[in-house]
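Two folds, back to back.
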Amino acid sequence: MTHYRISEAARLLGVSADTVRRWVESGSLTAGRDEAGRQVIPGVDLARWAKELAHAPEDPTGAASSARNRFVGLVTNIVADTVMAQVELQCGPFRVVSLMSSEAVRDLGLEVGSTAVAVVKATTVIVEAERHSR
């Protein structure tokens, strides 16, 4: 079974090691000790906690959609010319960039600071994992 040290768990969750220690102390996260006596968190428990923390903001459009890859975020930058625009959204810890027509930006009323939803449709998703020595 995979285990993560406090610092590794903090890095994966995007929080400080102190925050992870507080979660362990409060019983929100289960921790044990490795052979060296360091606190470690079972990977399955860390995965469960990560899912609990990952509450997406409510979709402001209220639209019904079959798309599952919807990321609610804030527009953080727009670079537009007369024909095309690059729109950046900050969706939680993720930066999503979309290229669209400048007309679409105007029609949607997008501006820096407004809320928007990025809907991602991809035919390929590549997953990479860290190599572990055996």
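---
second:
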Amino acid sequence: MLTAYLPPPDNGLAIIHVDNEIIVVDKPAGLLSVPGRGEGMDDCLASRVQARFPDALIAHRLDMSTSGLLVLARGAEMHRQLSRFFRERQIDKRYVAVVQGLMADDAGEVELPLICDWPNRPRQKVDFEIGKPSLTRFRVVSRDPDANTTRVELEPITGRSHQLRVHMASLGHPILGDDLYGGEATALADRLLLHAMDLGLFHPLTAAAIQFHSDAPF
């Protein structure tokens, strides 16, 4: 549970792309995507972007602890289109993470249904009775036997809350720095080592295929 919200200082937006229809920004770790509930939770990526681009509307979110690429629509019509793209899974997203332990398989899938662990929210949990279908594909990038860690590329096919974090923890390889699901891996990094590095979509106006990339800061 978030006890104190201390967002990173606003040193200007890391804008990857901007045109009349969409804005792609690189969100820093520790910043909410949208305003949180309660006092002092207003500072977020959406408000920072809207201060410069008043017509910007957020179409998806990243966890506060996750860094990386996030796309916003400009105006209500573009927002409807982008929201539909996400709903119909027409947007490709790939993340990179560093997890505890040496993963045995070079690639694979995790398919475990997820639901909010309501008494312990915002935690999510695996629930085979009422959980929503959730699928993550993974590919090992490298292994570090000295540190006992694996760098892995993650592709969420579904977009459940905390999906990548829960799925990796369920494999016994929690993401370093994860304060909700990491266990002893929580203390192995000073932030969650999860970054949204690739974003691919069709431009909502021109229908041209566009790709964006952001190197992980870890």
